[in-house]
Design brief:
This protein is α/β, with parallel strands linked by helices. It has one domain (about 5-240): NAD(P)-binding Rossmann-like Domain (Rossmann fold, 3-Layer(aba) Sandwich). Helices cover about 45% and strands about 15% of the residues. Strand 6 (about 175-180), helix 6 (about 200-210) and strand 7 form a beta-alpha-beta unit. It is globular.
């Protein structure tokens, strides 16, 4: 039976993924700050879902994560869905710091012990571990309304690239999947932007990318085209684009 840990599962993508894997018969452990939301998921799938109240940016998050692995009896798939990022047009330091705390410090608090746990199981070939992060199309280029969000999501994708290289050199069969969605209609998006996707629609492609063990996946095809355009725009022109 597959064992899945999802960090940042109180709503949005994380909650949808938790319900998907639980309904598919997996043993699932979820974590987030809002306990009442985690209890709702657990109540919907009694006996299949465990939960842990966690602020990923806290110093003790890594220890809590290791406890989740122990309580679940191991893990096959770790998904990091926690994220922060508000518009910081006036370059608000509090916004920038919170974004870095969650998207970098919180990310490392989970991903480092996840990697080390899977590395310790290399002697068990039946385990095909996978680590997933929900990054963003914003990681492709710096966006002036959300500087720290763009930078921290870029950090996640590059960090996965480095871990993939590290795992290969160590002879570890670990899959690293960076999901890069465009705008999705969740509590994270406070207003509708062009090409905003509905959560059920986007989730189908996210799940498919995870199941296919993709290295990177832009969600969806429209955003894939936009991402290609973003990569091709010269820096001299990009800096003049009004966002």
């Amino acid at each position: 039976m597959k064992k899945v840990i999802i960090i940042g599962a109180s709503s949005g993508i994380g909650k949808t993924l938790a319900e998907h894997y639980a309904s598919g018969g997996c043993q699932v452990a979820v974590a987030a700050r809002r306990e009442e939301c985690l209890r709702e998921i657990q109540a919907k799938f009694p006996g299949q879902v465990q939960y842990c109240v966690m602020d990923v940016s806290d110093q003790g998050a890594s220890g809590l994560f290791r406890s989740m692995i122990s309580n679940l009896g191991g893990v096959d798939l770790v998904i990091y869905c926690s994220g922060a990022g508000k518009s910081s047009s006036d370059l608000d330091f509090a916004i920038e710091k919170q974004t870095v705390d969650v998207n970098v410090r919180g990310f490392l608090n989970i991903i480092v012990p996840a990697f080390n746990h899977f590395a310790s199981l290399n002697c068990r070939p039946q385990i095909r571990p996978q680590i997933v992060t929900i990054s963003s199309v914003a990681s492709i280029r710096g966006l002036s309304p959300t500087p720290s969000y763009s930078a921290t999501k870029r950090f996640q994708t590059i960090y996965f690239e480095a871990l993939e290289q590290k795992a290969y050199k160590m002879g570890l069969d670990i899959t690293f999947t960076a999901i890069m969605p465009g705008f999705i209609a969740t509590d994270f998006i406070h207003r509708r932007h062009p090409f905003t996707m509905e959560l059920p629609y986007a989730s189908k492609f996210i799940i498919k990318a995870i199941e296919k063990r993709r290295r990177r996946a832009v969600i969806d095809w429209k955003w894939s085209l936009i991402a290609t355009f973003m990569k091709l725009v010269p820096s001299s022109i990009w800096r003049r684009i009004k966002l």
